[in-house]
Structure formats: C-alpha cells, structure tokens
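worker-03 picked up job from queue 'complexes'. Input manifest follows; four sequence lines, order preserved.
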Amino acid sequence: MAGVIHIVDDDASFRTAIERRLKKAGYVVATYPSAQHLLDCLPSENELGCILLDVRIPGLSGPELQGRLSEIGSILPIVFLTGYADVQTTVRAIKAGAEDVLTKPVSSEELLAAVERALAHHQLMRGQRNQLEIVRALIAKLTPREREVFELVIRGKTNKQVANALGATERTIKAHRHRVMEKLQVQSLAELVSLAERAGILSSPSGTGQTN
Amino acid sequence: MAGVIHIVDDDASFRTAIERRLKKAGYVVATYPSAQHLLDCLPSENELGCILLDVRIPGLSGPELQGRLSEIGSILPIVFLTGYADVQTTVRAIKAGAEDVLTKPVSSEELLAAVERALAHHQLMRGQRNQLEIVRALIAKLTPREREVFELVIRGKTNKQVANALGATERTIKAHRHRVMEKLQVQSLAELVSLAERAGILSSPSGTGQTN
DNA sequence: TTTTCTATTGTCCCATGGGACAATGCGAAC
DNA sequence: GTTCGCATTGTCCCATGGGACAATAGAAAA
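worker-03 finished. Artifact:
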C-alpha cells in the first residue's frame, strides 16, 4: 500500500536509517526532528499516511504530540518507536489510539508490518470520516428552523406535534420538513432517521410524549 | 465501588498477597490457580467485577484466556499483571480489550486505581449490554415473517413495496407491521428505525428502489 | 382432537404525509 | 431600492399509515 510515512525523531542518524528502509520498501517519507516541526507543517489528511513517532524527544514528547493531534481531529495513525520497554507508557499510548508501539532497535519486518497495518487502518478511518463529513455537510446546510424541525421529526414527532412545539402551523412544518428531506437527499422518514443516527444526532430517545 | 475481583495466578503466595490487599480495600476476592479453573467456574456476568490476570501461567496463558473469554462474550474487564515489561504482549493485550497492564511488583495505589477503573468500565459495559440485550430480546420475539417485514420497513419501503417484495397483500403487510410495532414497543416509524440502528441491523442502506 | 400460533386477507374510515400551485412579510446583502 | 434567502401560511387532492372489527386456513403443540 502506497503512503507517506512521517518520521518524528530527534536522532538524525536514526531518522535517516529508518527513512532509507522505508524508501526501499516504496514509501514516500517525510522526516521531522521534533514534534513541533510536524505540528508546524501538518500533513494533509487527504493522503494516505502514518506517523512513526519517537516517545522521548526534546520539546513536546511523543504522547503529547499524540494528544495534540487527537485534539485537532487528526486521524493519522501513530506507530510509536520507543527506546526501552515502558509498559505504562505503552498502555497509555495504545488506549489513546496509537496503532502500535515498537521497541528500538526495530526489525524491518516489524516496522513494515506495523506501517502496513497503520496505512490500512488509515484507509478505513478516512472512508468512515468521509461518510460522516458528507452527512454533516448536508445537515449543516439546514437553516436553524429546518434544523429544529429535523430534530423533532427524527424523534418520531408528527407534523402536528412539531407545529405545537415550535408554535407554527402544521402547514409550515410540512414545508420545512419537505425542504429537510430535499436538502438531506432522502426519500423516506426511515432514511432520514438512519442518517441522523449515523451523524451522531439522536442519543437520548426522549420518548413519544403524546400531546395531541 | 464494590465488586468481585477474580485473581488468576499460579503463584499461591502472590495470589494471597494480592488477595489480602484487595480485601483490605473492601473488595470480595476469588482466586484461581490457573486459567482453566476460571473457565470451569465462570464468574457471573451479573455482578460487578474484574479479572486480575497473570500473563505467563502454566496451561492456558493470560492472553489466551482473554481470547476465550472474549469469544464467549464475556465483558469482564481484565487487568494484566506481568512479571516483566513486554511491549509486544502489552500492545496485543490492550488492543484485545484489556483494561490495563501492570508490572510486578505492583504498588497498592496502582493496583487499586486499575481495579477501580476496571470496575467502572464494567459498570458502563453492563449498562450498554443490557440495553442491547433488551432490544435483541424484543426482536427475537418476531416471527420469521414479521422479521422480513421489519427489515424492509426500516429501510424505508412502503407497505405496497413490501407487499410486492414478499408476495402478499398490502393488507397483510399492514397486519404484520402492526404486530412488529407492538412487539418492539414503539409508536412511530422513527423509533422503529432508531431501535433497529441500535440493535446493529441496518448497515447497508440499499436505497429506495422505487418499484411501484 | 382441540387449542394455539402464524399467516393471510377483507372492509370501513380517519389521520397523516406529501405534491402542486401560490403568496406574504422580513431582514440582509448588493 | 431591489434582490435573495428564510419563515410563514393557504387550498386542493391523493397516497399511505393505521385503528376497529372480523374471518379463514394450515401447522404445531398440548
């Protein structure tokens, strides 16, 4: 699987060694002497890739960089490279979403296998994220009012109930509802609910408080 | 948080030592000299608990036991206790769902903190699993025919379309649909779709192939 | 054999959803 | 000042959903 491998390590000779091995395997490589360098020049999320990250580096540490990237919504998989076995750190890194943790020195098989897994994972994640973003983008196009109607409709409210809740005529709700279905490109209520569920809306059921 | 801690370790003196520490902290403790012993006498999933599991034990290893438990659907959190730092094993354990990995000798703070996290996690998981099981149980009560109707309805098919698809009258579908709503205890299509989504049905959209 | 469950279908009727066609009022942008 | 997007509401009409009441038929269970 082709991809860009981002190596973050303060040890220049190590970077070069790893870079050479990866390039030989056909990967595109970018190297960074520190976490900050990577943050300053954020890799595009649009191309397949992963990060090979040293745990202990001057300045921002590996796990710290992991946290920053996570905060800004990055889904670039991270493979940690650590000088010595530290179970505590390993556990935290994996739980924080790291793809793998390898110990130096790392064999080429280990390294390449981990990178392949990371790239495959990134592939998957990107697919999922794209789906989600497409849906979110559609929802973002709703006007505030349409959004309100949307929220109630996907919870099973009838037009009449929505009308009462929002202080408008049933006819008006019908119009909003129509535009919602149009903008979200769905033909049925089922699809609308399904879409809302996938978009992460709809967490609290909020029953069907009959108030005809 | 009260709970039953299941200790699996072949070292009797270690078991006893940990047991004493946990009992002092107010936990109920059960000890097992091997993974097989725990499998033979499976802890009830109904009570809050977690497993303290040695990685290297004669017979079934810790990770192997983890695999077995996972296969049979156990959600008891596992905290591994390992004699020496093994990053490879640690990564696998955590990725396989282990709650934590601690190295021996383990401090009481570390141990108790991990146990508390494990219990809290178990609490959460049990809640989620119960929700899911309630829904699944409801769905399981559907007759085969009702199930077919259900599957199509939650994908946005109209009664007419379902009738054509299943070779029955629209009226018949209406009857089935009614019983589905009744059995699944929902009042609206939106709730039905929502429920299906939560139950894990509904993965492939399968559009709204208009075939009136 | 009788009961029970499941699947099937009917009719009558009303509430709800949704398309077509049309229009008004109000801010904000140009 | 005019245009544009948004919210609002109307009427007419039809398709669909869904409740009420009722009934038939086959298969499985008691």
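worker-03 released lock.
The radius of gyration of chain A is 24 Å.
Residues 111 and 183 of chain A are 46 Å apart (CA to CA).
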